[in-house]
UniProtKB/TrEMBL annotation:
Keyword line: ATP-binding, Helicase, Hydrolase, Nucleotide-binding
Domain AAA+ ATPase residue range list: 35-360
Superkingdom per UniProt: Bacteria
Protein name: HerA helicase
Hydrolase found in the keyword field: yes
Gene Ontology MF annotations: helicase activity
Keyword Repeat among record annotations: no
Length: 409
């Protein structure tokens, strides 16, 4: 649990980042006031959300605060002196740290019978890789139940890594049954393949084989076998940046290689946020870590699917010392029950009354003002203050890649 007193003693003040438009002077705001009950930055595209976040991040960095950025488009690649990884390129998830549900989501396995067999198939591959210690799949047909139980027992104290590229083949091996006549031997795992069941799952198995051949998916989920390639284990880096005062305080996780696949993007963010939570829970932080999720509308869905990681970070992260800074184009993207969990708001230009009304802090008399905010201007509301202040956010000295892709000639 975070030591509040410790935070207060070392309190960081944003002194020249927010200019009070009415008072015509800088408005000093402490990092605790702005961030410790989560900050929502909202505004239409181009209103200045990412720039505002960058200004905050730069100041946190200058003051040796740990920051983790989930960058959906790679636009934060210009921040100097950071640890940056690109998922699916030089950053990977070690399957050892993933649940079978997460693997199913990442590989888009939806077939019910494949899902039912998935935990067993994973365990089989783990046995083959770490106990049997041979390449290939784990053959189950005609294997005795006792021998199998023995191998499962041995697996308990072994590494759990496995060769994910064999998953489709192993899944097929799981469809075994005893003979249905007097030859049935129930001391064996199975004697014949359940051909009917395999045939039913065939197209899903073929699809899975295709997915497992995808280069980015392989780079995302398989340990690199090439010595010369630097391949970072995301879980290891998260652990480092959440539990230690790193020399490079910021970890940028670039998700841009998967930006065109919304569902996969949601799953990635779900896994990342849940891993952050579990690391913080296990280790107990002695300093706050600010997590910035830019363009959260990409990951939040109103049907509730894929929100769980962000939800739990918002609900429980604060107690653990994980402060969330979320940016999104419209307040309507954030489910109402979550809006109430934010203590601070930076409201940049918004176009519709409906969006503004969703933010309960924007009352009728402010609607016109919010609609006419210039780029980089915002209404600021923090936990400590009742009233909203109109501020101009100072541009960071670091630039980020905001240009649209130019038309080539
Ligand atoms: N505080 C500011 N002062 C001056 N210019 C700014 C400020 N904030 C943003 N800008 C300029 O406005 C442009 C858009 O800003 P930014 O990319 O931060 O917007 P955004 O809200 O993140 O947009 P999107 O939703 O498309 O990501 C940039 O070119 C940036 O330089
Ligand atoms: Mg942006």
């Amino acid at each position: 649990m975070i030591d509040k007193q410790k935070r207060k003693d070392t309190s960081l003040i944003f002194k020249r980042q927010f200019f009070d438009v009415k008072a015509q002077e800088y408005l000093p705001i402490s990092a605790d006031e702005l961030l410790s009950q989560h900050l929502l930055i909202t505004g239409v595209t181009g209103s200045g959300k990412s720039s505002t976040a960058l200004t905050i991040i730069e100041e946190l960095k200058k003051n040796q605060q740990n920051v983790i950025v989930l960058d959906p488009t790679g636009e934060f690649r210009t921040i100097p002196n950071v640890q940056r990884i690109v998922l699916g390129d030089d950053g990977f998830f070690d399957v050892t740290h993933l649940t079978s549900d997460q693997i199913a989501h990442l590989l888009n396995i939806t077939d019910k019978s494949l899902l039912a067999n998935l935990p067993a198939a994973i365990e089989s591959l783990q046995i083959q890789n770490n106990v049997v210690a041979k390449p290939g799949i784990y053959k189950k047909i005609n294997r005795s139940q006792i021998e199998h139980d023995n191998l499962v027992e041995q697996l308990k104290i072994k590494d759990k890594y496995f060769d994910l590229s064999l998953l489709a083949n192993q899944l097929q091996e799981e469809y075994i049954t005893p003979y249905v006549d007097e030859r049935a031997d129930f001391s064996l795992l199975g004697q014949i393949y359940d051909k009917e069941a395999i045939a039913k799952a065939w197209s899903s198995l073929a699809q899975l084989k295709q997915t497992l051949k995808n280069k980015q998916i392989r780079t995302l989920l398989l340990r690199s076998t090439k010595q010369e390639i630097v391949h970072y284990d995301v879980d290891y880096l998260l652990r480092l940046f959440i539990t230690r005062r790193a020399t490079k305080q910021s970890l940028i996780i670039d998700l841009s290689l998967f930006s065109h696949e919304q569902k996969l993007n949601q799953v990635l963010v779900e896994i990342l946020t849940l891993q952050m939570m579990s690391i913080a829970k296990l280790n107990g932080l002695s300093f706050p870590v600010t997590i910035f999720i830019d363009e959260a509308h990409r990951y939040l869905s109103n049907d509730g699917h894929g929100n769980y990681g962000i939800f739990s970070l918002i609900r429980e992260g604060r107690k653990l010392g994980l402060d969330l800074m979320l940016s999104t184009q419209s307040p309507l993207d954030v489910p109402v029950e979550l809006l109430g969990q934010f203590g601070s708001f930076i409201v940049q230009r918004l176009n519709t009354r409906n969006e503004m009304k969703n933010l309960l802090i924007i009352k009728e008399d402010l609607i016109d003002q919010v609609a006419h905010l210039a780029t980089g201007e915002a209404l600021l509301k923090t936990i400590g203050r009742q009233e909203l202040k109109k501020v101009k956010v100072e541009l960071s000295t670091i630039s980020h890649q905001t240009e649209n892709i130019p038309f080539g000639l």
